[in-house]
Write a structure and sequence with these properties.
2 domains; alpha+beta; seven-stranded mixed sheet; Glutaredoxin; 212 residues; two-stranded antiparallel ribbon
Length: 212
C-alpha cells in the first residue's frame, strides 16, 4: 500500500468520512446499466395517466423503448413523415408493448408535462402503448440513452436484444426515411421468427438527452 493510500485512509478514519462513504447507496441506474444480451434492467416510471408503470408488468411480452424529444429535428424527421407512427402501429398491432419515454427535465428542450405529452400524441396520431415521464433521468441513465430517438427492443424472455438507432440514415433530412434500413423493424422481425437479432447494437443518432 502506498503512502498516499495510507494517508487517505487515516484522514477518512479520523474525520469519520469513511463511514459516510460506505453508507452512501449506489443509485439504481449505476448498478444496472443495460447491456445487450443480458436481462433488461427493471424500472418503474410514471405514465401520463399518472399511474406507475413497471417493466415487469409486461413480463412475457416483447417491449420497445423509444426515447423522444419532440423539439429535436431528428425526432421530428420520423414523426413528421409518419415513419415513427407507422412503426408503432405495426408493432403494437402484433402485441408488442411500445413505451415512449421522455427524460428531459423541466426547462430543457423536449420537456413535456403529462397533458402536453398526451396532446402531442393526439396531434401526431402516434401509437405508443404508453408515454412515460422520466424528468429525473433515472430510467434514461439506467439504459444508457444518449440520443433522441434512442431505441431498445426487449424480447419476451426479458432480454435486451437491440439498442441503438432507429435506422441507418443518421440525418435529420425527411427524404432519408425512404430507403433507410430500419433496425428496429428488423430486430422485431428476428425476435418474432425466434432468431437472434442480426444487428443487435448500433450507434444512436439525434439530439443528446438533456439529463438533469
Amino acid at each position: 500500500m502506498t503512502n498516499d493510500s495510507l494517508t487517505r485512509r487515516t484522514f477518512l478514519a479520523a474525520t469519520g468520512l469513511a463511514a459516510i462513504v460506505k453508507s452512501v447507496p449506489t443509485p439504481a441506474w449505476a448498478a444496472a446499466v443495460a447491456r445487450v444480451g443480458t436481462s433488461a434492467p427493471a424500472f418503474t416510471s410514471t405514465a401520463t395517466t399518472g399511474k406507475p408503470v413497471s417493466l415487469g408488468d409486461y413480463r412475457g411480452k416483447i417491449v420497445v423503448l423509444e426515447w423522444t424529444n419532440h423539439d429535436c429535428p431528428y425526432v421530428r424527421k420520423h414523426y413528421e413523415t409518419g415513419n415513427m407512427q407507422a412503426l408503432q402501429k405495426e408493432a403494437t398491432g402484433t402485441g408488442v408493448v411500445w413505451l415512449t419515454i421522455i427524460s428531459s427535465p423541466p426547462g430543457t428542450q423536449g420537456y413535456a408535462t403529462a397533458a402536453e405529452a398526451d396532446a402531442l400524441t393526439a396531434k401526431r396520431k402516434a401509437n405508443p402503448s404508453l408515454v412515460l415521464l422520466d424528468p429525473k433521468g433515472d430510467v434514461g441513465r439506467m439504459y444508457g440513452a444518449t440520443n433522441t430517438p434512442h431505441m431498445y427492443v426487449i424480447d419476451n424472455a426479458g432480454t435486451l436484444v437491440y439498442a441503438g438507432a432507429i435506422d441507418d440514415r443518421p440525418t435529420s433530412r425527411k427524404s432519408d426515411v425512404d430507403g433507410a434500413h430500419n433496425y428496429v423493424r428488423a430486430a422485431l422481425a428476428d425476435v418474432a421468427a425466434g432468431q437472434p437479432v442480426k444487428t443487435p447494437v448500433t450507434r444512436a443518432y439525434g439530439c443528446t438527452v438533456k439529463f438533469s
